[in-house]
Design brief:
303 residues; alpha/beta; globular; binds zinc ion; 26% helix
Length: 303
């Protein structure tokens, strides 16, 4: 199975601290190296975590609050300085293209690589990327300014052949290919082996990134059945009014969205700096959704 892995780069909210940087995550699947949000300090965090900047293929920016994109121009410039030539694909709000262009023009920087910009659309759930392995969707969330979440769906992976079958029958290259695509196998004695007996089909994996948002039930339809969901939890439940006023969510609200969406696992993050540790946030979330983990800078999660 191709590894599908999430690394939390920054797990805090607006103000970065020495312990928690602001929002950024790295999602990898084969050659897909997706950076999701890019707060100030993201490239240093990537260096510290020994994640190569050069491998980033696509960047997804959820919205234009600084704690989600102030690291982007620095990262773009570093890629230029270290000699990138392959295109970099950016998905973000319309104004972001303009902001980046102003910054590049002001320093008379002509990038050595193509920056391919894709504007996120306001109307509902949109497929923004479709390649051999994955489909990526954007969807609006409910925040003070236009903001999007992202859903990464694995396409049906090829079947894995059972090791005991390979050992017993030594299928050749073409036969392996056929079995992986769903064909039955006829052995040298003419006996037929049904595909489901000799191979295993894994479930499709998926990940939803639900960034800065107030409690927003429309999300449930957008991400129904997702395997792993990240949902912001800026506040504990006793701050529900403050959460509403600032278009953020509480622990219990994030848990309720995960539950109603039928998610398998919940990751909470974007914690207010008023909380020195995540213990109480995690405990409270688990009262509604038990399979929850708290994001920490550097945490890796197999999806
Ligand atoms: Zn934020
Ligand atoms: Zn925000």
């Amino acid at each position: 199975m191709i590894p599908f892995e999430l690394t939390i780069i920054g797990s805090g909210s607006a103000k970065p601290t020495l312990k928690r940087k602001a929002s950024a995550q790295m999602l990898t699947y084969g050659e897909n190296h997706f950076l999701i949000d890019c707060a100030e300090g993201t490239q240093l965090q990537l260096n510290a975590l020994k994640i190569s900047l050069m491998r980033i293929s696509h960047i997804f920016i959820s919205h234009l609050h600084g704690d989600h994109y102030f690291g982007l121009i620095g990262l773009i410039n570093s890629l230029h300085l270290i000699g990138r030539t392959k295109p970099l694909y950016i998905f973000g709000p319309e104004k972001l293209a303009e902001i980046l262009q102003i910054q590049l023009d002001a320093s008379e920087t002509k990038l050595r690589y193509p920056l391919v910009f894709n504007t996120l659309q306001a109307n509902g759930k949109q497929c923004i990327l479709d390649n051999v392995h994955l489909e990526v969707y954007s969807f609006p969330v409910l925040h003070r300014i236009p903001t999007w979440g992202f859903l990464f769906n694995e396409k049906l992976p090829e079947r894995n052949i059972r090791p005991d079958f390979i050992e017993a029958f030594h299928p050749n290259f073409d036969e392996i290919h056929a079995i992986k695509s769903g064909a039955d196998f006829i052995d040298t004695y003419g006996n037929s082996h049904a595909n489901h007996e000799i191979s295993i089909q894994h479930d499709c994996r998926s990940y939803a990134y639900c960034t800065d948002t107030a409690y927003f039930e429309e999300l449930i339809d957008y991400i129904k059945g997702v395997k792993v969901i990240y949902h912001e939890t800026t506040f504990m439940a006793n701050q529900v009014e403050r959460a509403m006023a600032t278009f953020h969510s509480t622990t219990l609200q994030a848990a309720e969205i995960a539950l109603k969406a039928g998610a398998g696992k919940l990751i909470i993050g974007h914690f207010s700096s008023r909380y020195p540790t995540t213990e109480t946030l995690l405990e409270e979330t688990k009262t509604v959704f038990s399979n929850t983990v708290a994001a920490e800078d550097g945490l890796k999660i197999e999806l």
